[in-house]
Amino acid sequence: MSSPEIASLSWGHMKVKGCSSSYKDCKVWPGGSRAWDWRETGTDHHPGVQPADLEEVLQKGVATLVIGRGMSEALQVPSSTVEFVRQRGVELIVLQTEKAITEYNNLVGQGAKVGGIFHSTC
Questions:
Q1: Tens of pLDDT, residues 83-96
Q2: Model's pTM, two decimal places?
Q3: Which family is this sequence assigned to (predicted)?
């Protein structure tokens, strides 16, 4: 099962190939995607992405996880979250969202087992 490509990105709007709905923030993994609702885990720009935000994607058996920090990189990724991913043996790539999506799509094109979480605004 392959990871879905991110078909388009603009401020506050992402489209995942093969999915009829669009997302403000999203999670993607081999075989699926869904909205990333920060309220589920109490995430905010500070302190940023929590391990609980990543758990669902990591459980899909990804080898690489890409995090998009937003268009202006306002979303933080604490060192504790980085360590959480690394302890699971998963490669972590953290970038500004446009760059993150380019990297994610490149990995999808190579057939990698890649997942991602992307923030589409600040």
A1: 999 999 999 999 99
A2: 0.96
A3: Belongs to the AAMDC family.
